[in-house]
Automatic annotation (TrEMBL):
This is pyridoxal kinase. The gene is thiD. Its EC number is 2.7.1.35. One of its GO terms (cellular component) is cytosol. It comes from Gordonia sputi NBRC 100414. Belongs to the ThiD family. NCBIfam families: HMP-P_kinase.
Length: 270
């Protein structure tokens, strides 16, 4: 019998991030993907690829969640970009209305297309209403700093401390990602499970961020959890899958590359 994974996230029109990446990752990992769209981000090629951001009406988000959850018995969900306090309210209510085996939250805090004032309200609502419902949360370096309230994160020890502080907000597991910005030769992620910290390291691939890496990692964790993996094995596998996708990255006309979710399976078949 096929396993199901559900994602509630934004659309990113180039295919390099957001729900497109989530559903591609689910398919690559052999789970049946179901998706609810929260907002539409369309980069603007005439304006430095700035983010044009349009939220989906809260009623329409609620309708999508109703359709998805009435059709399939979904118990593992990934939450990606939400974008506005109104969206956060409707998604938080829907998450709280049922039992989940896992709620994986990728705390996408800001989008370049939003006003800073609006972004602050959104960050606060995410911290107060969605993070406490998460079983797994996957902040990047910037998000880990904001959510932990730490002044700076410049070492693996700082990253582990941020993960511990974020766990105090409610999630059982915190995966804090150092990425290319954390100093050192390796891309380091830490997994805090409420008592122990596990450090996962892989050599950095270049020094530029690759778009879609965070979405891919959280989606791969979600898919593995849906198939019944334990958290430690889900995270370790997801890092391998994402690293393969970064190595096999795709270039477009944007100034940044994007992850190729098919690279892991390509390598197995080669
Ligand atoms: O990578 C973060 C992200 C997530 N979701 C959507 C996005 C982006 C970044 O652009 O547009 C919809």
């Amino acid at each position: 019998m096929v396993d199901f994974a559900y994602v509630i996230a934004g659309s990113e029109a180039t295919g390099g991030a957001g729900i497109q990446v989530d559903l591609k990752t689910f398919q690559e990992l052999g789970v049946y993907g179901v998706g609810t769209t929260t907002c539409i981000v369309s980069f603007d090629p005439k304006n430095g690829w700035a983010h044009r951001f349009v939220p989906v009406e809260p009623d329409v988000i609620a309708d999508q969640i109703e359709a998805a959850t009435a059709t399939h018995d979904l118990d593992v969900v990934k939450v990606g970009m939400l974008g506005t306090p109104a969206t956060i309210d409707v998604v938080a209510d829907a998450l709280a209305a049922r039992q989940w085996r896992h709620v994986v939250v990728d705390p996408v805090l800001i989008c370049k297309g939003q006003e800073p004032g609006a972004a602050l309200d959104t960050d606060t609502a995410l911290r107060e209403k969605v993070i406490p419902l998460a079983t797994v949360v996957t902040p990047n370096l910037f998000e880990a700093q904001i959510l932990s309230g730490m002044d700076e994160i410049t070492s693996v020890d700082d990253l582990a401390e941020a993960a511990r502080r974020i766990a105090d907000l409610g999630p059982k597991y915190v995966i804090a990602k150092g990425g290319v910005e954390l100093p050192g030769d390796d891309a380091v992620d830490v997994l805090f499970d409420g008592s122990d910290v596990t450090v996962l390291a892989a050599p950095k691939v270049g020094s530029e961020r690759v778009s879609g890496a965070g979405c891919t990692l959280a989606a791969a964790i979600t898919a593995e959890l849906a198939k019944g993996a334990e958290i430690g094995e889900a995270v370790a596998f997801a890092k391998e899958f994402t690293t393969a996708g970064i190595n096999g990255r795709v270039s477009g006309h944007t100034p940044f590359d994007t992850v190729w979710q098919g690279a892991f399976v390509d390598a197995l078949e080669a």
